[in-house]
Amino acid sequence: xxxxxxxxxxxxxxxxxxxxxxxxxxxxxxxxxxxxxxxxxxxxxxxxxxxxxxxxxxxxxxxxxxxxxxxxxxxxxxxxxxxxxxxxxxxxxxxxxxxxxxxxxxxxxxxxxxxxxxxxxxxxxxxxxxxxxxxxxxxxxxxxxxxxxxxxxxxxxxxxxxxxxxxxxxxxxxxxxxxxxxxxxxxxxxxxxxxxxxxxxxxxxxxxxxxxxxxxxxxxxxxxxxxxxxxxxxxxxxxxxxxxxxxxxxxxxxxxxxxxxxxxxxxxxxxxxxxxxxxxxxxxxxxxxxxxxxxxxxxxxxxxxxxxxxxxxxxxxxxxxxxxxxxxxxxxxxxxxxxxxxxxxxxxxxxxxxxxxxxxxxxxxxxxxxxxxxxxxxxxxxxxxxxxxxxxxxxxxxxxxxxxxxxxxxxxxxxxxxxxxxxxxxxxxxxxxxxxxxxxxxxxxxxxxxxxxxxxxxxxxxxxxxxxxxxxxxxxxxxxxxxxxxxxxxxxxxxxxxxxxxxxxxxxxxxxxxxxxxxxxxxxxxxxxxxxxxxxxxxxxxxxxxxxxxxxxxxxxxxxxxxxxxxxxxxxxxxxxxxxxxxxxxxxxxxxxxxxxxxxxxxxxxxxxxxxxxxxxxxxxxxxxxxxxxxxxxxxxxxxxxxxxxxxxxxxxxxxxxxxxxxxxxxxxxxxxxxxxxxxxxxxxxxxxxxxxxxxxxxxxxxxxxxxxxxxxxxxxxxxxxxxxxxxxxxxxxxxxxxxxxxxxxxxxxxxxxxxxxxxxxxxxxxxxxxxxxxxxxxxxxxxxxxxxxxxxxxxxxxxxxxxxxxxxxxxxxxxxxxxxxxxxxxxxxxxxxxxxxxxxxxxxxxxxxxxxxxxx
Length: 857
Ligand code: PEP
Ligand code: MG
Fold this sequence. Notes:
38% helix; binds phosphoenolpyruvate
């Protein structure tokens, strides 16, 4: 076995990483090594290799050895804030250096005065299969003396092949630096998105900010970077597909931006909240007034009113022994426990809605996090038990998050604790109970609540949640919102004094908890709850009725779906069919393409949930910024204009044939219609139709399936009268149509206010498509976000659109609105608006019309 020695980069006092006053280093989140308090200001290379990172501030340097091992020397703590003051780089990134070569000079006095500490970590990042040995004992050390040895170098060599000496550097490494404009920085969701993308490539990718570097596959490490809006983020990758990896990570940040702006705008009046942090923030309102005696004030996490009995649930501490038996066995036990937890979480996800699935997806990321697992394995190798190692590894990540001045990231602590307890229970051969019994009308009172505890509670008996701590944007709050359970957080320790079983009033509209209400107050609150329930039941009941405008014109209100749970919600909310099944959910985030049988099963489940209602199944809209691990697509400078939608399908006919075969076999056949995304000309439709005809003949289907084209490009809208001859219907994807018409990225945060589908130019294209449909006597639908925009509804109807497909929860409100409109009035409004100069003027006109109908709630 070969061994690599790492030498002291300067004279000083050698200590351990525990002495570095930074949880990321002390927690070994970036890797393992030692720390030195320097007594000289000349930093020399601790080993031979290539300088792979040396920021302009010159406060840190990373060297990659010939074996592909990265060694980071970070001078002091928080020294990035010095902005290069006191530092002088003597080499450039990309230079090859020998051990002992001078790399950086720094002024000890200047740095010592400006830094939190001079304690300098010298780390191997990441540890992937490596071990450190012969660590130098604490004490004085001179530059060039051995600090530690790295063993297991061969293992690393096989997974990360060293770059061939004569290979061109561009082939093996890539990088990109950008300013993060995400409103909440790299919080949990963008971190998960990036980690997933990083895992799709063989390249070793890392993200650096604030002078720290994180393995791009580790959600925990990315979050611990503490990247906020406006921070500079550097993305680096090495390996054969480094460029694709970096391009995908950059696209990931853009995707996160798109999700952020989609969540923050255009939501229908009563659209359900998702697990998106930003969409949740609307309900995080502080209490309105200072509470009186017997009343506790809290922060509103989910609005609503409830009367019920204070109820507490028990949380059992799980004891773990520190020392393990045999490291091989402990490792195997940990792996088995993780497999069991994974299977269990996947089962729970399958029974819940989109929000629960998203949260469980985040927990699965934590379960597989390379940094957490690496740390646990190292502890096991050091003789600790699997349980102790897992708990310690998770707690280190928790400390790193708690050290950040970012409440959103601190709220992820509960998720880590949840994953910790799942694994510890699995190691003990137990599982979290799936059902926690509750008394009737229970108001849960607790200091905190984990997401898995909430999902295990008997929903039928739970009327409200009151926490002394907690965060309004935590996952448990998002889950409660999805389950429509009023919730207050931050009520303080006063809730500990409430007697078990006491009747309380939770007013999560006002942010108060009445701990000892008098009988009249209880009666009044009960009446308020009752009338609210009745109002809601009436809207829902009306939503079940077929939708017609005030003059009797039939307008179908469909729902956009992503899976079977959405379908059930859509039916409950009165959707008359599915106007857009985004089948991408089956294709992304997996190692191999879904088989025909798998696809058939998924589509059939949705068809069953929809009952007799039609299902418009969109062919996979992948490629571009939605890369597939199993589909080697070239990196694109401009994914929005590249291989995506029908272009990807035609470029990969096998994938398309499998999907079409599955779709054609869904029963009852007459309910399924197919929709082709990203059409630009009739030839694309004919190519897909040709394949469908072949498959129908092959399967023995006599009735041709109905086929539609999406109008998402200006080309398609302008050619609509030709396209409609080849299809049975058109469906306008206003999200893409707007971005391509206005040449504004639909996810661009600074353009969010201007990327408006009510721009007269977009309306003219909608008019062209709707006119083509009317002339041909064929249906024209809108399935983009604008269909759920109250101001847009009369305009779309006025232009001739007769089907709107919206998020399931928006169906009742959209139906209610359509019932109040006359098509002639809508037509007049639309004609007026086509000639206006801006979306602002269009909105003003639409608002005026709705106001005249008394419809601007
Ligand atoms: C659209 O572009 O409006 C659309 C419905 O498709 P997606 O949002 O899935 O791109
Ligand atoms: Mg689209």
